[in-house]
Specification:
The chain is built from 13 helices and two strands; from the N terminus they run H-H-H-H-H-E-H-E-H-H-H-H-H-H-H. With 292 residues, it is an all-alpha fold. Strand 1 (129-132), helix 6 and strand 2 (146-149) form a beta-alpha-beta unit.
Length: 292
């Protein structure tokens, strides 16, 4: 029994490594139910090839959709004509900050003055939940209020502190985009290349994506200058950054609440090993920043 358990452990390790699965996937209810069903199958029919019994991904997708439709159809009659939660967006104010230092005290004073126009008192503000970035002055301003850090901003900050610093491929991509833009070659492209803007979320991904779209044309231009070698390697970075772009887009929904998605992303980032080919990448630092 001990040897069998060691063999199962080795297979679980191999699954997490090969398929990039979270370590606690092996303790999930669904995984254990699947394992138990496979054991029942083996006990009944003897040793069988697992490939003969496992369904195709499209089959799973079809069955999930059918079950979702069935559940949706069963609950919709009770939802129709009844009140349910929805996201309502209202811009209370947008204003230029006064010509004073942006200390925590001054920021809170500005907020109190602006919301007063909506007949919201200082005491009423304590029932509000603020979502903000993690700048020290903002945290100080809201220290006596309930504050939730913006998840999308946390992702962007974590990436900006851990990706790109001394990265040869990313720095080369920035150089290429800058070179193509300043040399006037952009006029020969169907759309312009996007340069990274450090204050914009996912701008590094946007830059690499624009380079990827015009890869053949840019490669031809660089070949003329004997610089085609500089275009290699960026695609790994693009592939790595894409999930973060998708996660940020998911958190930026304006027509439905997205707060419930932050818990899923917290677990995802804390358990993922962030494996990739870039040796200089700080795995631990990104994990720490992403979940904090």
């Amino acid at each position: 029994m001990k040897n069998s358990k060691n063999s199962i452990t080795a297979k679980c390790v191999a699954m997490c490594v090969k398929d990039m699965r979270a370590f606690n996937a092996v303790s999930s209810e669904g995984f254990r139910e699947l394992g138990q069903e496979l054991m029942h199958l083996g006990a009944h029919y003897g040793e069988v090839n697992v490939a003969d019994v496992m369904p195709h991904p499209s089959t799973i997708s079809k069955h999930v959709k059918e079950q979702a439709d069935a559940i949706r159809n069963s609950i919709m009659p009770s939802v129709i004509n009844k009140t349910y939660w929805c996201l309502v967006n209202n811009v209370l104010f947008a204003t230029k900050f006064h010509d004073v230092k942006k200390t925590g005290i001054n920021i809170m004073k500005e907020i109190e003055e602006r919301v007063a126009d909506w007949n919201i008192t200082r005491d009423m503000l304590h029932s509000f939940v603020f979502v903000s970035d993690r700048d020290a002055n903002v945290i100080q301003a809201l220290e006596n209020h309930e504050r939730i850090p913006c998840a999308a901003h946390c992702i962007s900050t974590a990436l900006s502190h851990t990706v790109g610093e001394g990265n040869f491929f990313l720095n080369t991509a920035k150089y290429i985009v800058r070179y193509i833009t300043k040399s006037g070659f952009c006029s020969s492209l169907k759309s312009s290349l996007k340069q990274e803007v450090c204050t914009r979320w996912n701008s590094l991904y946007t830059m690499l994506e624009s380079l990827h779209i015009h890869y053949n044309k840019v490669a031809a231009l660089l070949t003329e200058k004997d610089s085609a070698y500089r275009l290699k390697g960026y695609d790994n970075e693009l592939h790595f950054l894409r999930p973060f772009k998708e996660d940020t887009d998911e958190l930026e929904g304006e027509k439905e609440p997205t707060f419930q998605r932050t818990e899923h992303l917290t677990v995802k980032y804390s358990e993922c090993n962030f494996a990739r080919n870039t040796i200089c990448f700080s795995h631990g630092l990104l994990r720490k920043k992403a979940v904090s």
